[in-house]
Design goal:
Helix content is 35%, strand content 15%. By secondary structure, it is of the alpha/beta class. The protein has two domains: 37-261, Type I PLP-dependent aspartate aminotransferase-like (Major domain) (Aspartate Aminotransferase, domain 2), CATH 3.40.640.10; 264-400, Aspartate Aminotransferase, domain 1 (Alpha-Beta Complex), CATH 3.90.1150.10. 45% of the residues are buried. The protein binds pyridoxal-5'-phosphate (PLP). Pyridoxal-5'-phosphate binds at residues 82-84, 108, 155, 180, 182, 210, 212-213, 222, 224, 347.
């Protein structure tokens, strides 16, 4: 007679198949059962035709991967536990001792820190190029260059590069090009079809995306994705992904699946409010410069307009200001502290507006000529009413920057 403890584990009931509802089920597993040893030996996880182990995929993660491919126009996807882990997955898959990676000088800071703090120690060198000068990229590509990162717009300073020109150079020189697509999010432009109508399509090789931002939309999930269109390249990424054990939690995957249907609507709402606030900030004498690619005089505005289909593709909800250097760094901090709706905090893409002052001098090889000198403050606009956010900015200016 089987004992109750055993029966409670090996229970005979199987729910009926065919349950359908708007939201995916949350499948959690490390172990996956096989009906026989032969089935265990023959199942293949690499092409998603079967399940073998939680780390190799579940119905929940497979579903999320497929939807993200649709979002970005790719064919294959791996999920990583953060946007930075996605970036690291790309670097560790493609770079070996003796290789070099080229990174734009305005790249997401931790991408540079990965190169400086980890890759360097493994004999992988890096150079920073000026993203606003395609000739600088071309000049820096050498026989050792195995990977070029591109980012549009750049982190914090939001310069918009001529992305198509940068990608063309990489294609011409036969170097793999990876885009950090967190800003565009698959909505502002198409990373695998950068010039509408061009055949064959001009495409990045890899699109890495911090799902932490707009796909999650809640400020409560850390996740990243790496999307490709080439099966061989995907397999290199996937094998590294498996060897490093980069799994994601089922509840987190479900949270992203739940937020994806509203993503385009949220992106547009963030975009509209951000442009309104950026324009208002341009009229404030305390700000020497406002950085947002849709503003006429923001660096790379023309490139943004071309790539994002005359602006209809939109822009993420980020803008930065350079505060007149007649205000001390302490006064600039007091301005951030005086904000009430804009909370002080990293990341973006959620409902709550955020503000962070940055020390640009410590982030760049040199101060870019297109940036005014002063304290840089980056705003991430949430989903609050734009009028309330504007009043918050006006109040903080009147309190701290007088
Ligand atoms: C936030 C961000 C990342 C990293 O995402 P995490 O999930 O926080 O690791 C990478 N690139 C860009 C451009 C980002 O803004």
């Amino acid at each position: 007679m089987v004992h109750l403890t055993t029966e409670l584990i090996h229970h005979g009931y199987v729910p009926p198949a065919g349950f359908e509802a708007p939201q995916q089920g949350v499948f959690k597993a490390s172990t996956v059962f096989f009906p026989s040893v032969a089935a265990m030996r023959s199942r293949e996880w690499k092409d998603k035709t079967a399940y073998t182990y939680g780390l190799h995929g579940t119905p929940t993660t497979y579903a999320l991967e497929e939807r993200l491919c649709t979002l970005e126009g790719g064919a294959q996807c791996v999920l990583a536990p953060s946007g930075l882990a996605a970036i690291a997955n790309v670097a560790l898959s493609l770079l070996k001792s003796g290789d070099e990676v080229l990174i734009p000088d305005n790249a997401y800071g931790p991408n540079k820190a990965l190169a400086e703090g980890e890759l360097k120690g493994w004999g992988i060198t890096h150079q920073y190029y000026d993203p606003m000068d395609p000739l600088d990229l071309e000049a820096q590509i050498s026989s050792r260059t195995r990977l070029v990162w591109v980012e549009a717009a750049g982190s914090v300073t939001l310069e918009f590069p001529d992305l198509a020109a940068l990608v063309r150079i990489c294609k011409k020189r036969g170097v793999t090009v990876a885009l950090d697509n967190t800003w565009g999010a698959g909505l502002a432009f198409k990373p695998f079809d950068l010039v509408p109508g061009e055949v064959p399509a001009l495409a990045v090789d890899i699109s890495a995306h911090a799902l932490t931002k707009y796909p999650s939309g809640g400020g409560d999930v850390l996740m990243g994705s790496v999307i490709t269109r080439d099966a061989g390249l995907h397999m290199r990424l996937k094998l590294t992904h498996m060897r490093l054990g980069l799994g994601v939690g089922a509840n987190d995957a479900e949270a992203v699946l739940r937020a994806l249907p509203s993503m385009a609507l949220r992106y547009r709402a963030h975009d509209e409010a951000t442009r309104q606030l950026a324009q208002w900030c341009q009229a404030q004498p305390q700000f020497l410069q406002v950085l947002h690619p849709a503003l006429q005089d923001s660096p790379g505005h023309a490139h943004w307009k071309t790539l994002c289909v005359n602006g209809t593709g939109g822009a993420a909800g980020l803008f930065s200001v350079v505060i007149d250097p007649r205000y001390t760094p302490d006064q600039c901090d007091a301005f951030c502290d005086a904000l009430r709706l804009f909370r002080i905090g990293y990341s973006w893409g959620g409902p709550v507006s955020l503000v962070v002052p940055y020390d640009l001098a410590s982030m760049r090889s040199s101060w870019p000529s297109h940036l005014a000198h002063g304290t840089l403050v980056r705003f991430a606009v949430g989903l609050e009413a734009a009028a309330d956010l504007q009043a918050d900015l006006a109040n903080a200016l009147s309190v701290a920057l007088i």
